[in-house]
Amino acid sequence: MSMREIKLCLLGDSGVGKSSLVQRFVSDTFNTHSQPTIGASFMSKTLVVDDQSYKFQIWDTAGQEKYRGLAPMYYRGAAAAIIVYDITRESSFSAVKMWVRELEQYGPGDVVLAIAGNKADLVDQREVTYDEAHKYADQINATFVETSAKTAVNVTQLFTAITRKLPAEI
Ligand code: GDP
């Protein structure tokens, strides 16, 4: 079976669960008290979809202002990006638009984009409706899912959906 290597960048406000989503995807575990990411972290995980093997190289950044100068390097060669917000924090959803602009500015033009509304297990604290987020994602041609790094809901599905949107290999 051939292997496709996919560089994927994670974007989104601090605390929305980017590192937790990666940890769930890569090692199927969850920490309630995860350590904040310093600078950028890098993890890799292979996923088989429709008889094709995909090796995801996942870049997770803390997004701090002092690392902004590294943005072009961070995005270079990315085939896919996931912008994460927290369904219990409206401000993190408003910030998605800013992250989309950042990606347009520094990222490759043909990047496959997904938006993940994380912490879907905390429905009783929901501040962002499924419909408003889904509508916005449709407008910008992004895949949309609500995920929970805690319960694992839709985490593999998120990465699987991305593989299905990748352009055919030349
Ligand atoms: P990051 O700054 O975006 O990388 O966010 P982290 O992965 O460090 O997560 C921030 C906090 O949210 C941590 O305390 C996590 O345990 C918690 N968290 C992350 N994902 C979820 C989730 O899906 N559900 C719940 N309830 N908590 C989560």
TrEMBL record:
Q: Name one Pfam family in it.
A: Ras
**CDD domains, alphabetically?**
Rab5_related (cd01860)
Alphabetized SUPFAM superfamilies for the sequence: P-loop containing nucleoside triphosphate hydrolases
Which keywords has UniProt assigned to this entry? Nucleotide-binding
Q: Where is the signal peptide?
A: none
Q: Which PANTHER family match?
A: PTHR47978
UniProt similarity note = Belongs to the small GTPase superfamily. Rab family.
Listed name of the protein: Ras-related protein Rab-22A-like
Q: Which organism is it from?
A: Saccoglossus kowalevskii (Acorn worm)
What lineage is on file? Eukaryota, Metazoa, Hemichordata, Enteropneusta, Harrimaniidae
- Gene symbol here is LOC100372170
